User: Fold Stage 0 sporulation protein A homolog from Extibacter muris.
Amino acid sequence: MVGVSIAICDDQEYFRDQICELLDCYDWGCTTRLSTDTYANGEDLIDEIQAGKHYDIVFLDVLLKKSMGFDVGIMLKALLPDILLVYITSYTKYSVNILKAEPFYFIEKPVCSHMLYHVLERCIERIRFLRRDYIYSCAINGAEHKIDLLNVLYFESSLRVVKLHTYSDVMQFYGKLDKVEKDISIICNFFLRPNKSYLINSHYIDSICRKHVVIKGLEISITDNYRSKFFANYAKSV
Assistant:
């Protein structure tokens, strides 16, 4: 399970409450635990962090009454370099100076649930990467191995044997690809099932069309039974 600490900083109570309610309504299952605090100004948020409070994500209003959100963001980054800053704004055009505030994403007001959840999922993916939390455990030759999924190209299944392909190695273990897929879905969302025999890492896709996908020169078919779910999950992973 990933624990994610979130701060919402907006001088308008309506938007603070709206984001909190949307986060409370989303079903994260057993994979993510969220904790949320709200702030009406950037000064209080900075004071809390200087006192030892830690946040993974901050939803930060661009135009606060006492200060600019970008200025607050720069100070937050100085205190917590890995923090992900999601700026909330009614405006869409800013100067190149905003890069100093290192935005991870922008959300336009009024905040819609679809965009909020999309951004939050991207944030959690980044947090998992920063924590190196993409570890899959399996038994190979009687010993437990911890596999970094970022290095896995694809899993290949034949009968009850699953082969794990990386750039430099091929390992195999006994099991079912259905269970591998289920276990990995709890860890990350970038592995896709194009057919009953393969589970592929979308990060390594060279090309894709309706009927097949190519990973490092290997053409893998996308069968009818898996096509709809495959492309739906592919859209979420990119």
About this structure: The longest strand covers residues 2-9. The mean pLDDT is 87.
